[in-house]
Amino acid sequence: MKDAMSVPDVTKKTSGVALEDLPASSATGRAPPSAAADRDALSAVIASARQFQDKQRDIARRREEARRELAEMVRTVEFNDPYISPLDALKP
What we know:
Blueprint: H1 24-28, H2 35-80
């Protein structure tokens, strides 16, 4: 015996039409997307992903370039400064 507060069976036919018999557009209220629209959406997502990857590569390249410049600058200061002597490392 079913309880009056139980959840109705959604597969049961209502007004002569089951939910499974309805087209996808009726269930969502929109027309189903076409293959061309799917391809366009996929192309847009791929283009966005490529743009993101390019930006990430550019950032990584700039960081590596800055690291090389910094390492070069430190060596230049360390070895070309006339006021720094290698013997300074031995002083207490």
